[in-house]
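Risk mitigation, structural track. In case the binding assays with 2-acetamido-2-deoxy-beta-D-glucopyranose fail to produce interpretable data, a predicted complex structure has been prepared as a fallback.
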Amino acid sequence: MAWLLLIFLCLGSSRAHFLNITSKFEPDLEGRLLSLLLTLQTEKLYDTLLIYGRDCAFPSLSSRLQVPTVLVSSGSTNFEWNFSSLTLILSCEFQAEREENYRTLMKLQVARRLILLRGDFQPETECDFYSKKDQYNIAMVKENFDQFGVVYSCRLFQDRNYEEVNISDVTQIFVEQFRNMHGAPIRTITDNLEPRSMATQDPKTGKKKWIGFVANLINNFIEKVNATMDMPQKLTEVDGKIFFVNISKWAADDLLDIGMTVDSTWEMTNFDTFSYPYLTSSYCLMLPLPDLVPHNEIYGVIIDHGVLGVLLVLFLIFSMMLIYIQQKSFRGLRLTRVLMNDMCLRGFLAQPFPFPRQSSRKLKLVCLLLCFASLMTTTMYGAYLHTFLYSPPSEPVVRTISDFEKSRYKVAMNWAEIDMLRSEKHRKLHRVSDDRIHTFEDFQKFENLRGSFDNDFVFPVTSVRWSTYNEQQKLFQHPVFYYSDDFCLSRYSILSFPIRRHLPYRELFEDHILRQKEFGLLNHWIDHSFLDMLRLELTKRTDFSKPLEDKRKICVDDLYWVLGLYALALGIGGCCFALELLRSLNYWDRLKEYKWRLLAYLISYLSYLISFLKFKRF
Ligand SMILES: *[C@@H]1O[C@H](CO)[C@@H](O)[C@H](O)[C@H]1NC(C)=O
Ligand SMILES: *[C@@H]1O[C@H](CO)[C@@H](O)[C@H](O)[C@H]1NC(C)=O
Ligand SMILES: *[C@@H]1O[C@H](CO)[C@@H](O)[C@H](O)[C@H]1NC(C)=O
Ligand SMILES: *[C@@H]1O[C@H](CO)[C@@H](O)[C@H](O)[C@H]1NC(C)=O
Ligand SMILES: *[C@@H]1O[C@H](CO)[C@@H](O)[C@H](O)[C@H]1NC(C)=O
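Fallback model:
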């Protein structure tokens, strides 16, 4: 076995039965170290010991301390181990630990270390060595520790990189150095993407600074730990905005400490180069609001099949009742008489009809009911029609992919999103055909198009960004887009800050994130985003909604169906009349007999022409 692992809990002297670690080291040094470790234990600075190396006092000491201990005598492991955050690492000599697994290293990065220096090693070089490895909680004791009682504690941000601490001052051995970084630089870079980080000028100092719900958090952190912001010039040289995926990449390559951006972590297997989640948001499509139904189709919209069926049944019942009451039997009941009942037809269209002269009480009652029915239906349809003509309803919204394929919309997407779209996870969206997708290589162009509210396109957007678009379109004459919960690239994406893998103040930063969120600052910043954008003139007050045409007046096109059906009905009427005339041989006599009917036809044709011409004039 490459290394030996023994975890045991000291349970007093019974340990000696199975572990015989006899003391062959100087008893004074051992006693002093034991009292140091006991003091550290009472200060609650550790609850687990991890000992690297074998030839020193530490392994034998551990049996006298009542804590779980891990012995790594060969100095290295190649397995991913999980340790408690309060692990104290004891090294038998300088470089006794040769940890191989980088994930175990990461977990042990912030652990406190106590190193026994043997030979003529100098604390200065040792501290340098560890700080290059991004390990900062280092204390060292020399072999003459029992005589002087001095612990050498590495210090950052100061000229002599270590301090000699008197053993009686235990709290000074391990101090949290990153709480005050004394102006040390934190390398960061911004994606300049509103509303999360927006460049502006500090009114007091005149320096460039960034605001927004991502930038604010970083600024506050830098201020809190007394550091300075350092934007690497080399990386910012590229003109225009930097795509946030590149920032994540640079952070993963150790070119940055913390990226001033948030990236989603859906394809990550671990959070090595990402911080604790900062916010969650859904990532869906924003779709143009459906168009209004054109005026000439409104006559069709008000016709509901169910209602029409009920009206037909009512008509048949009334018609049969009228025939039965007038004839006092069902003998005269024929389909044509029922369907073409003159009284009933006129009644239902709210037209006057001849009231039978000798009418019984029953007949009067039926006629009364007919009047009511006609009043109800004509009022209902009239109200419907007027309302819709005044404010037309909108077409049905797009709900399925097939609706979408039938619509005129195209999906505008950035190259990074295409991969996401095509993955099997997005069951709904991956069926969108390729010719419907417009891919943008340049994120900036995509942003500009989305910002112009072009309603021929559909755009993916996070719910956080959508909230600002929604605020913006409240300034328009009418809203243009809506956020669709039906088409989502991700309903729950976790956004985190990209950070360097071995960021030594990761815990401090994550604690800062949680505190700022807990205080409600994140929500406040997000709510304030749009106002900030307006103030910095990053968003225009232009009304991108297409002005609605003034539909108060009606033109011939709008009456297309009405006039068409009217003409058709008149045509049928004319044909019937002609057939009636042709039935008898003596046309002239017939014509004389029907002269009033002919007149009526002529008048209706005339009125049709007049109304057509009248509308044509507008
Ligand atoms: C421990 O080992 C030493 C030899 O190294 C031996 O003399 C001693 O008796 C052992 N003690 C026990 C308790 O086994
Ligand atoms: C430590 O945790 C990781 C996951 O965080 C796991 O994959 C690994 O197996 C764990 N190691 C041990 C020894 O349990
Ligand atoms: C450490 O402190 C003790 C008491 O506070 C003092 O007696 C001793 O001289 C100090 N040792 C050194 C090396 O400063
Ligand atoms: C912050 O750092 C500066 C050095 O850049 C230092 O002068 C100042 O004292 C520090 N502030 C605090 C509160 O320690
Ligand atoms: C970002 O990365 C892409 C490829 O990953 C590259 O084409 C592009 O030039 C990079 N942008 C910048 C600003 O470096």
